Amino acid sequence: GIYDPNVPMDPSLAGVLTQKAIESQLGSWTSLLISMIIFVLAFTSIIAAYTYSEINMFFITSSKYASYAIRVLSVISTVMGAVVSLQFIWNTVDIFMAVITILNILAVLALSKQGLGILKDYEEQKKLGIEKPRFIGVGNKHLPADLPTDIWVD
User: Fold this and answer.
1) Which of 46, 79, 96, 103 has an alpha carbon within 20 to 30 A of 140's alpha carbon?
2) Nearest-CA neighbor of 81 among 72, 70, 93?
3) pTM value?
4) What share of the chain is helix, strand, coil (3-state, %, to 5)?
């Protein structure tokens, strides 16, 4: 057999185990197919992560240096992902996920007054029988302040 649950296995070999299991059931031609699929998924994930980072950085600042820093960090991350141990990658990802989670919790807390105000506005409009409630971000009595936008105006 390919897998024996009584034999300890190195977690970094899980991909090989999956590939061998599929190969044993569908034939050796699947080995190349799985390798190609993994490559495409990895490549598109790298491009997507870079794009998200670039867009988010542009939202914070339009500095060309910030954009350059994102590019450098993306290349460094990609190279590190290819050469360092899987355990190191998972530990690093765990740390960054914890930091991102804390930042998201702080953002949710900071925006909670606006979010609750928007919910109160929606519920009030539904109580008044308005079939399609319309959000107005300027002069809304439920919001702590006007939203800095020209989109949700009367």
Assistant:
1) 103
2) 93
3) 0.62
4) 70, 0, 30
